[in-house]
Amino acid sequence: MNPIRDVVIVGGGTAGWMTAAALARRLGNSARITLVESETIGTVGVGEATIPPIVQFNRFIGIDEDAFVRETQATFKLGIEFVDWVRPGHRYIHPFGLLGADMNEISFNHFWLRWMLAGGDPDPTLFSTEAQAAHAGRFARTAGAGGKGPKIFYAYQFDAGLYAVFLRRFSEALGVVRIEGRVTEVAQHGETGFIEAVILEDGRRIAGDLFVDCSGFRGLLIEEALHAGYEEWSQWLPANRAAAVPCERIRPPEPYTRATAREAGWQWRIPLQHRTGNGYVFSEAHLSEDRAAELLLSRLDGKPQGDPRILRFTTGRRRATWVKNCVAIGLSSGFLEPLESTSIHLIHAAILKLLAFFPTRDFDPALAARFNGEMTPLIEGIRDFLIAHYKCVEREDTEFWRYCRHMAVPDSLTAKIELFRSRGEVLSTAEDLFKEVNWFAILYGQEVKPQGYHPLADALSDADLAGALDQIRAIIRQRAESLANHQAFLDGIIARGSGNP
Question: Which of 77, 324, 353, 416 is catalytic?
Fold first, then answer.
């Protein structure tokens, strides 16, 4: 068999410690796991918003959700509100979860479109429990008596630094060994080019069989040593800077993230238990770093907790994220801006695929090819989803938005938009992260108006359709109203951690 005996993870932060925790949980005692990180090298995390698969990841590695919420100052998230994207004054929400209910084996949005095009209420969020609850500041894991109601789709908003600390403690309890040190050299086999060890600043040599590059934008192993190459997507996602700063919390946290379009990009607002995370993602070609920081500070809810921190990045991906005996996970594999909170999901997805295709020391190249072949369409699908936010707008009030509105986009996205205009669907696949319901929320929210719908939606009579929609809408309203106040739900979790009933 020739199994892997030593796994070396270079870099900590969210990516490194998520990888360490998952590998330690699944590999058990069959391999030693070592994580090398340096306290002198900061991490990028500034406060994270996530999407629902993070719930499954935490369960997958055995994390107690209530403990996680307490220790990471987390709040719950039911979706993302978009403000001023189509034009100033416009807003919509991309909620998690389902729209309406399953009907006749086609997406509910087709029945809703038929009804809306015939004069029905144009607000689809009336058929989303998560959207209704988000706007009302409500949350629960289920909506029925005794916790037996239908599933609520949710994610978290948390302090990324605290999450890494939490995962480090969790991983070390599973046997992961952390080594403090800065990698200054990568030793490779003279003939194969495989990585044999990383050399630290003090001369220590950390050898391994499999290396995981979690070194961030730099790509210390995957790029500097193995020269994987980088495919840049700045022509479609022109923002290449972010100014980030937390501020004091001035009101109970909302169970959603807000993304507000600004003159040269957009501003995030992530409410946590102890503070509010804020950032301005912008194009440096259209706005200076100093001015972006100044504008961000002028738009905070509360008093800033420090000076804005500037992050610099280039959107795109490594041409290959598994090369020889090295797998890049996290920012070292590429970067898509945080507009739809997908960064942690891409870490999660890469970890699961690494486990699925986990190699022996023979490193069958078919495994790397399969890994790369599955990660590429995943990230490209997310890329198109993000581009749609910028492309499908009316605003031309600044040079940045004029560029975005008129830019050429990938053919794959053009096809989706054209089909959506025709019949309200994009034909997402099982492998896509964002499904029909997600594309519907964004494209309809950005006022791409379908002219038709799936023909099977005509199977119901007008009276049966109206009756079904009335019933579904009433059930959703009742579900949303039955949920607890979000702050009260958090207070219960916190109280249980302190030993109070």
Answer: 77
Residue 155 one-letter amino acid: A
Q: Which of 331, 418, 440, 420 is nearest to 379 (CA)?
A: 331
Q: Would you call 416 a catalytic residue per the annotation?
A: no
Q: Are 169 and 283 in contact (CB under 8 A)?
A: no
Strands 265-271 and 257-262: antiparallel
Residue 157 phi, psi (nearest 5): -120, 125
Q: Are 102 and 108 in contact (CB under 8 A)?
A: yes
Helix H or strand E encompassing 108: helix 108-117
For 335-402, the DSSP string reads E--GGGS-HHHHHHHHHHHHHHT--BTT--HHHHHHHHHHHHHHHHHHHHHHHHHHHS----SSHHHH
26-70 pLDDT per residue, tens: 999 999 999 999 987 655 555 589 999 999 999 999 999 999 999
Count of CA atoms in the C-beta half-sphere (13 A) of 346 = 28
Chain centre to alpha carbon of residue 59: 17
Instruction: Write the pLDDT tens digit of every residue in 213-255.
Output: 999 999 999 999 999 999 999 999 999 999 999 999 999 999 9
Tokens for 239? Answer: 């923002």
pTM of whole model > 0.90? yes
Report CA-CA distances (Å) from 82 to 180, 257, 340, 446.
41, 9, 10, 9
Is residue 157 classed as helix, strand or coil in its secondary structure? strand
What is the rounded CA–CA span in Å between residue 436 and residue 438? 5
Residue 200 CA to residue 223 CA, distance in Å, equals 18
Give residue 95's Cα distance to chain centre: 14
Task: List, in sequence order, every residue forming a beta bridge with 54; answer none if it has no partner.
Answer: none
Give the distance between the most distant pair of CA atoms in the chain. 78
Amino acid at site 254: E
Residue 105: other Cβ atoms inside 10 A:
6
Strands 322-323 and 326-328, how do they pair?
A: antiparallel
Is residue 115 a contact partner of residue 103, using CB atoms and an 8 Å limit?
no
